[in-house]
Amino acid sequence: MENEKLFHFNIQKMKNSFMIIIILIGCLEGVLLNSSNLSIDGYARIYGSYKNFYNNVDYPTNSFIIGGISREPTILLNFIKKPTLKSQFKIEYFLFSPMDGDLSNKEMSFYQSLQFTGKYNFHFGNIGLSAGSLNWIRLSPFTLWNHEYKDDIFERSPWEPNGNAMERYQSFYKEGNISRDIRWGKAPTQGYNFKFNFSSIGTNLYFIYGKSDFSGGLKIPQFPKNLLAIRIDKSWENIITSINYVQHFSKVSPTINKNVGYNVFTTEIIGTYHLLEFNTEIGIGQYYSPTYKKKISESIQFTGSLKSFIPIKMQFFQIGNGFVNLNSAVANSSIQEVQPLFQDTINPDLTTFEGIITEIGQLVNNRKGLNLWVSKKISDWMLTISSSVTSDIQDQSPFISFPHLTNRRIRSEFEPYSDNSGAYNRITNIFLRSYEKIEITETDIQKDYNGIEFSIKYQNKFFNNIFILSYLNSFNSVQNKFSLLPIINNSAYLRMNYQELLSFVQLSQNIMIIGLASFEQIIANSKTELAENGYSLDQLGTGFGVGLDISLNNNTGIYFRHRWFEHTDRNFINDEFNGQESTIELKVYF
Fold it and tell me: Is residue 531 pLDDT above 60, yes or no?
């Protein structure tokens, strides 16, 4: 019966939603189409997934979803009107599928946003304004930014741009990642965004006021929780210098008139010198609330890339445990009470990951360390080795949070956007990612983190068709002593190994076949929490998949994926699942 309910939703509501769209488009036609300088674009993304579980994991044994849980619309329409050469307004319409896996959701949802942009020229420069929602902004890593996570290349992300499928995988071969849309790495804001450009002196001033996804929410304007950001930058011959400030300010709740928030002040230098490219940012930040003792903490990072015969990139960072900014590139591991909403509301904490094992290069507070990347192209081979050596500044948490890399997207959908989930209440699921938390049981805790990653990619042609092979092997450990390399024996609190083999084969100009095999092993020692049998965590996960990409043209594609997935824990025996999933996606840009 549950499966039948999943397919049943309110047809009348669906008809009403379409009627609303027709009426709105009709109104827009009367207002907009009678004049020139109007453009209409957008996309339709029809995405369906079917999961078949052999072990039930808070899902029906069989589940069918249209639209996924990505919060990306099924249909997006952009109406852009330019009343003058220097101004425009944009109306966006979003239509979301009701079939998102929530059996109580029977209605198609509809959302509208309005944005205005304008520019006025002076003899010394110009002033630009963007107001409304949404504004995607990037200032500096410590102020307004987003960490660019590595994608699971086998999966199709909701924001995939248009273009030939082969271009996606060639980008992965050359750069180690894929192209994304203009939002990637930026922070979403809603409100007012001013840019003052003084071209005669090479200076820009940015002023932003409004809300963000972690400052009151983009759809909850009644919450008195807001964002203020300022940046002033100056361009020199080969250097850009800037000062940056951001403040998130609020009350404890709508009924408690006490201040809570955080602010950050930094200076940044970006430049080049011969073969060296560098970026450094130094600043201070603090979090304040009635229950937290306010203190100022440092934030320092330096990144340098040497474009030599063997390209080398190095990053050093040190970020104090009192520094926090949820709309920056810095993950939060030290201030548990920071929440997207108010402290007295019941919401999952999806922003705090104590003792987190990060991607190499990801910044996190209460930590210092060094990251290193070395890459080299030899004939048709692309080799990359990266390493990370970091440690906590203060030993204040007995927990370790580690990511599950095999079947990460599927795991994140078991209980979407939740914390304390799973068989042992240790799982936190965020967008496309799943983390687990275990506790260290000894009292004298010191946490040092190591990671090493080896990647090799090969590209060639077979009967004039391109094929690409990729192998990735990463190893991480957390232990109570400093080490230059990951610890591979049982003296580490936790050690994890992930291996991935991918193949991309071009069958014709517009057809690609994709293969995946992945393996994940995570082992903890006896100084962490134990299962009922007296032994520690010992997990094994596997994933195998096959896919087909068909590019009908540069604006239309059909994409099929099938995956077999499995996870077991030898000692925490209730932590297991396995099954299969098939997905199909039709995406049309217009």
Answer: yes
